[in-house]
Design brief:
mainly beta, 8-stranded mixed beta sheet, 5-stranded mixed beta sheet, 2 helices, 7% helix
Length: 279
Amino acid sequence: MRLLFVVFLFVATSLNSQTYTSGVWQYSVSGGEATITGYFGSATSVTIPSSVDGIPVKRIGGGNNVSGLGNVTNIVIPEGVANIGGGAFENRSSLISVNIPSTMSLIGGAAFAFTGLQSMDLSHTTANVGESIFYGCSSLTSVKLPYNMEVARGWMFYGCSSLTELVIPSGVYSVAQGAFANCGSLTKIYFLGNQPLSVPMTGSFQNSPVTLYVLPTSTGWGSSFAGRPVAAVSATEILTTPNKFQLFSASQMDSDRIVGRSDVTSNPSAYGLYIVTGK
């Protein structure tokens, strides 16, 4: 009986790890859902299929690098895909653009590490992002983070030497080791919430000449944080740069806190802002 069980387990495992092809895509299947694991095409701009052979695509990368993407520069991920595995696009230096759907809920560690990414917009997602997601992305200049983000994870932006400023969502309560380290051009980080509750680990901002800017309505902030200076910034000043400040909590959208711009509360999207309820 034990031998029979072992044989059954081996067969089941082999079936679960089997890969298939559909057109230019390689995929695996588990639980009736497909994971894209490889690409055989020659196009440099590609769209991930929403389904393969009638099976919905829910994941990209099964915990390994997606093969065949060495020359791909632009990737569009369709609505419905919810997971990017750890290291899925790592070391793809030609990759400069990835369009992320609103259905994305998990992006594994180092998913985009050492790529040629120039920008990334995650602000319309609820994605939980792993460590080192943008590690070594030296061409990255613009990132909009998930509105519900709670932790700036370890080495998240390590070595992003072209990044000059970031906006940190109001719910972030922890800044991990090396999160913003070795970012030589990073001079401004805007925290939209209160001071993170957890004490930053060593090197969170190491070798990054950054000043942390906070709203006057925020609490807990002193004159410095993790060895970096802290300064106040007004909501009015934030509204003059809408592309950089895409996120406010509902309470911060009150017109009496946004001097001379009361219309923003009735039409926030016109200024690149998002109302986040319950924050």
